[in-house]
Structures are given as C-alpha cells and as structure tokens.
Amino acid sequence: MTPLAHIVALPVRAYRLIFSPWVGFNCRFQPTCSAYALEALQKHGAVKGSWLAARRIGRCHPLGSDGYDPVPDPEDTKDP
C-alpha cells in the first residue's frame, strides 16, 4: 500500500474500530464496505481505491442490490 493510501485508510480503520461495533454487522454486500475500501486502497492506491470505495458506498442503499461484490483486479480496470 502506498503511503498516501495508508493515510486515506486511517478513517476507514477508525470507523471499523470505533463505530462498526455500535452499528452492527448489517452490510448488504460481501465483503463489507469497510473491508472493500481497505482492499481497494491496497490494490489500486489512494486515488483509484478511493473512487472504487465511494462507488461501492453509493450502491449501498435500500433500493440497491446485494450479494458478493469483490474488488476488481488492477488488470480488469484498465482502459483498452
């Protein structure tokens, strides 16, 4: 993980440590949004990982879908 991605991951880790136990484990997706965000930051870096995490959180609403939604591999997201 890049140094910038480590910095961007700090609020996600704080959420998992402090708030996640209070809110419960009711995530619609597998892996959870916080785990998805950390994995996206690790695989794609700070900018693209943040974008992928924001897109994932945007899909998490009552009318949205659910189920297994893994982080795409870096070679899967490159433009031709």
UniProtKB/TrEMBL annotation:
Keyword presence, Cell membrane: yes
From which domain of life does this come? Bacteria
Q: Where is it mostly found?
A: membrane
Annotated Gene Ontology cellular components are:
plasma membrane
Keywords of this entry: Cell membrane, Membrane
Q: How does it sit in the membrane?
A: Peripheral membrane protein
InterPro entries assigned: Membr_insert_effic_factor_YidD (IPR002696)
Signal peptide residues are none
Q: Where is this region: Disordered?
A: 61-80
Where found, per UniProt? Answer: Cell membrane
Family of the protein in this entry: Belongs to the UPF0161 family.
Its job: Could be involved in insertion of integral membrane proteins into the membrane.
Please give the name of this protein. Answer: Putative membrane protein insertion efficiency factor
Q: Which organism is it from?
A: Phaeobacter gallaeciensis
